[in-house]
Structures are given as structure tokens and as C-alpha cells.
Amino acid sequence: MELKRINRFREKTKEVALDNALKQIEDKRYEVEVKKRGYSHILKMGVVFDGKRVWVKPK
Fold first, then answer.
1. What Cα–Cα distance (Å) separates residue 26 from each residue in 9, 13, 49, 52?
2. b/e string for 18-56 if b means 16 or more Cβ within 10 A?
3. Residue-wise DSSP of 17-55
4. DSSP β-bridge partners for residue 53
5. Which domain does 31 fall in, by range?
6. What is the count of structural domains for the chain?
7. Whole-Å CA distances, 8 to 5, 17, 44, 47, 49
8. Which of 33, 35, 48, 57 has a 20 to 30 Å separation from 41 between CA atoms?
């Protein structure tokens, strides 16, 4: 899971922020350590905040 806050100067929309969160999960290979522990069903998700609003995008 990667958490992001919308930065109006870099990521103008929630869609861009969600895509950036999921890209970071892939780029940094967060699942590698989890797989080493024997887990095979892994849900990757980006979570974006804008004040009190929250969006989630699974992969």
C-alpha cells in the first residue's frame, strides 16, 4: 500500500496521484519481502488523500 496526498503543484488530479502511487509500488518492488515470508495473495493499492476525501485504486 502506498499513501499519497494530492500535491496541487505536481499531481493536479486524483487519477495522476493514484497512478503515481501504484507506479511507486512497482518501482520499489514492495512485494518482494512479503513473498519471501511465504505470502502469495498480495493486493497492491494506491491510497490518495485530499483533505477529508480519500480514493483507493487496487492493482
1. 24, 20, 20, 27
2. bebbbeebeeeeeeeeeeeeeeeeeeeebbbebeeeebe
3. HHHHHHHHHHHHTTHHHHHHTT------EEEEEETTEEE
4. 50
5. 2-58
6. 1
7. 9, 10, 24, 16, 12
8. 48
14 close to 48: Cβ distance less than 8 angstroms = yes
**Which is nearest to 44 in space by CA: 20, 26, 28?**
26
pLDDT in tens, the chain (59 residues): 999 988 777 767 899 899 999 999 999 999 999 999 999 999 999 999 998 999 999 98
CA 15 to CA 49: how far, in whole Å? Answer: 12
Query: What pLDDT does residue 12 have?
Result: 75
